[in-house]
Design a protein that fits this description.
The chain is mainly beta. The chain is built from no helices and 14 strands. The protein has a single domain, classed as Immunoglobulins (Immunoglobulin-like, Sandwich).
Length: 117
């Protein structure tokens, strides 16, 4: 992955051994929670930055099932509830209209119980 001017990651696709490297402007980024962020409360909304033109965006928490995000205000959102205090990781993925799938790296964060943990 390569950073472009907007701080977003640009996917790099290639095959080992054939010398072909293809760059694409499509990218996806899990904005919130931030890496190593501690969140509190009983609900949290994850924000994903992906093109509005993609077919779908989903998130997975702790390598669980992929859950659909909703699109609003130029971003994709996932409303997360029912979680317990502890460490977590989240990933986001998008499906473009050509059937390609792009997935973010895991984002690590922690849910606290509101008592400075």
């Amino acid at each position: 992955m390569k950073n472009d001017n907007g701080g977003r990651k640009t996917a790099v696709k290639g095959r080992v051994g054939n010398g072909i490297l293809t760059m694409t402007a499509e990218s996806i980024m899990l904005d919130f929670p931030a890496e190593d962020e501690q969140i509190t409360g009983t609900e949290y909304t994850l924000r994903v930055d992906a093109p509005k033109t993609v077919q779908s965006v989903e998130v997975s928490i702790n390598q669980g099932p992929w859950q659909p995000c909703r699109q609003s205000s130029g971003y994709w959102w996932y409303d997360w509830t029912g979680f317990e205090p502890g460490p977590y990781q989240a990933r986001a993925r998008m499906h473009n209209t050509e059937g390609r799938v792009m997935t973010t790296l895991a984002r690590h964060f922690r849910v606290g119980n509101g008592r400075n943990n």
